[in-house]
Amino acid sequence: MTTEAAAVPGLAGQVLAAYGDRISLHDLYDEAGAPVYHDLAAVDTTEIRELLRSVRAVPGPVLELAAGSGRLTLPLLALGREVTALELEESMVALLRERLVEAPAGIGKRCTVVRGDMSVFELGSTYAVVVLGTTSVSLLDERGRAGLYAAVRAHLRPGGRFLLSTVDVTDTDGDDLDLEAVGVSGRRYRMIEHWRAGQEVRKVTILPPQRHIPEEGPVLALTTSIRVLPPDDLARELALAGLRVVARHPLPAASSRHTGVLLEAEAA
Ligand SMILES: C[S@@+](CC[C@H](N)C(=O)[O-])C[C@H]1O[C@@H](n2cnc3c(N)ncnc32)[C@H](O)[C@@H]1O
Fold first, then answer.
1. CATH assignment of 40-167+230-267, among 2.102.10.10, 3.10.105.10, 1.10.3720.10, 3.40.50.150
2. What is the per-residue pLDDT across 95-110, written as a single tens digit (0 to 9) for each?
3. Centroid of ligand 1 to alpha carbon of 209 (angstroms)
4. How far is the CA of 224 from the centre of ligand 1 (A)?
């Protein structure tokens, strides 16, 4: 097992240890991880309805940050808006571009794809709405978030809205969450989340279910670390950065221990 795999905590760490050096561990958004992320994202409709409702209320161009392979980008384009989609990872940008080419009725032509870092960007335009969905604010540390808020303020039109989602976690029983999910390909994935009360980060590990792992050969395992940013803490942080939260929209929970919220903020 690699040193990175040995550092995976909790149940996922035990599962990976059982496969020893057969484990090939990658980041969920790198070249090996992106197709798996996309397979799962393509069937995930979480927060799309709530997000579109809030975007509809503010006419004008949309900037979507951390756009990934376009799970939210395509529905935003379907509203008839001009969308600029910013994404850090080349592998995700490539998937997004493919989807835009395949999108119906040429809606992809209204999308500008930018490879960039959401914690430091300068696009030379302003937007009616800036969207940061899928809890992706949690991928940034405090310094990264400060950069994000400053860049968002600089890109918001007067009266514009910053829409961002976050998830709070409660540790109900002290066990790791161990779920099975199905991608759009029909492939099944085991997802293990490790988090204990008070920890700043939850660690998600994705690998095939045990019964689908052959006797020999490499086993692809993917990890991602997601900070836990409760909505009240995030709203306080936004206020200090000059972004006032004007509405909170509850989101359907991913599990009994997750509480999702879509925050709507405006420049103070
Ligand atoms: C949870 S995914 C969400 C993707 C997409 N919004 C969705 O709903 O499927 C997070 C995305 O953020 C991207 N990302 C991570 N750090 C980033 C950064 N600093 N700037 C821009 N994108 C980033 C990752 O590559 C990944 O595609």
1. 3.40.50.150
2. 999 999 999 888 999 9
3. 25
4. 11
